[in-house]
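Budget justification aside, the reviewers requested a transparent look at the raw inputs and outputs of the sequence design task funded under Objective 1. We therefore reproduce one unedited record. The lines immediately below are the structure tokens for a 423-residue chain.
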């Protein structure tokens, strides 16, 4: 399950930091005034920075660290100015965290968690219960020599520990999330001083995150644009206004200037952009064209997945996908999907909800038995989805821009091998 640390900007210039396992839901609660305290008192609020982490403790550590930062450092974080953050950190003496003990060297912090064991148990279990760290995280820290029990280094996660024993855990700082430029080839469809449109290949992650620290589109763009990307997305996501999945190919617009970022973000927010995807789905949609109007939010069964929610649900977001079958294939169809909204995994979730999951989708569907030999022969192991068209108003010039991208070779081969059906 992923976790997020986040920063909100509230009325009057007030900042609020937090961490959560459901960023979308938590931010919506803050915006509605449902969270008692600062954000309810200083409406309206806006999400200005967030970062995903693999564990709750890492998100918590980052949130507490940023909470103690000066206003200048928080503003630098929003702009993605990591060099200024480092300079400001070096000027300040003493710890900047607001809980526990922290050691500072440059901009890095190490927090020490201390306490007392409440009841007899295995060491890893007892520490997990006392600190909210996961047992696996505790085991790793013991293996790294960062855990002390009654003043002595702990060496065995399975060791029995008695109630009343004191402990110290030295938690390393989260890794620097700043993306670095990397010379990675990219296909540029359009570029000017304010924005760039690229045709992303399948298999490339859009921005650095847990498990993908580099080799992303952002790393490639920082090299191509010589670091000139909008800072609104933060140090890990400079210029990123929207995303497409790692294994989805196609068009993406990225902001190079802050004014472009703000203008594009507004168009995404009011759903005024043109976005169309080409996909190969299982089965033949009936009717061959239609609209899926269904809320999308985190699945109750698997928090890593999205799901269609009941119409009266207070969770998730409104989502609309218009689809049309373009070609009828054996056991499948080539379809076009036009989006009114842009929710996480929207096309994949909506098509799966009407019984026509994408071919190759490992999360939301199961490829029909008749098509599996074809996918195996072609070594096709991704969802058959391509962002084929993208249109928007240039946020600076006011000109209408429209771009298209041909189907990539792997999807063309899949369509050819599936053949055509007149049934």
């Amino acid at each position: 399950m992923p976790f997020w640390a986040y920063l909100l900007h509230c009325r009057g210039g007030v900042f609020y930091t937090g961490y959560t396992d459901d960023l979308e839901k938590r931010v919506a609660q803050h915006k509605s005034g449902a969270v008692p305290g600062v954000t309810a008192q200083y409406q309206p609020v806006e999400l200005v920075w967030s970062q995903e982490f693999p564990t709750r403790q890492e998100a918590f550590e980052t949130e507490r660290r940023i909470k103690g930062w000066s206003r200048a450092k928080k503003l630098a974080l929003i702009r993605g100015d990591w060099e200024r953050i480092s300079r400001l950190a070096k000027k300040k003496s003493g710890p900047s965290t607001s809980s526990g003990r922290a050691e500072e060297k440059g901009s890095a912090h190490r927090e020490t968690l201390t306490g007392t064991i409440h009841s007899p148990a295995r060491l890893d279990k007892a520490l997990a219960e006392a600190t909210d760290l996961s047992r696996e995280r505790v085991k790793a820290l013991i293996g790294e020599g960062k855990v002390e029990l009654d003043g002595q280094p702990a060496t065995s996660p399975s060791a029995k520990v008695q109630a009343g024993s004191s402990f110290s855990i030295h938690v390393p700082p989260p890794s620097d999330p700043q993306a670095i430029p990397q010379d990675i080839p990219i296909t540029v469809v359009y570029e000017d001083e304010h924005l760039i449109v690229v045709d992303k290949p399948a298999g490339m992650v859009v921005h650095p995150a847990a498990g993908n620290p580099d080799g992303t589109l952002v790393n490639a763009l920082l090299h191509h644009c010589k670091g000139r990307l909008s800072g609104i997305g933060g140090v890990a996501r400079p210029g990123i206004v929207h995303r497409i999945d790692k294994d989805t190919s196609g068009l993406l617009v990225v902001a190079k200037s802050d004014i472009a970022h703000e203008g594009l973000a507004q168009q995404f927010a009011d759903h005024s952009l043109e976005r169309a995807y080409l996909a190969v789905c299982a089965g033949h949609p009936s009717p061959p064209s239609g609209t899926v109007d269904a809320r999308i939010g985190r699945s109750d069964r698997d928090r890593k997945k999205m799901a269609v929610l009941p119409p009266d649900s207070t969770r998730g977001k409104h989502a609309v996908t218009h689809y049309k079958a373009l070609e009828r294939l054996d056991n499948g169809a080539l379809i076009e999907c036009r989006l009114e909204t842009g929710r996480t995994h929207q096309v994949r979730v909506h098509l799966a909800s009407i019984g026509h999951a994408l071919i190759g989708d490992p999360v939301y569907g199961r490829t029909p038995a008749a098509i599996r030999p074809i996918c195996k022969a072609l070594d096709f192991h991704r969802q058959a989805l391509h962002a084929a068209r993208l249109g928007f108003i240039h946020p600076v010039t006011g000109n209408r821009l429209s771009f298209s991208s041909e189907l990539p070779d792997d999807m063309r081969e899949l369509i050819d091998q599936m053949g055509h059906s007149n049934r």
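Residues 56-67 form the longest helix (12 residues). Residues 322 and 341 are 10 Å apart (CA to CA). Computational costs for records of this kind are itemized in the attached budget.
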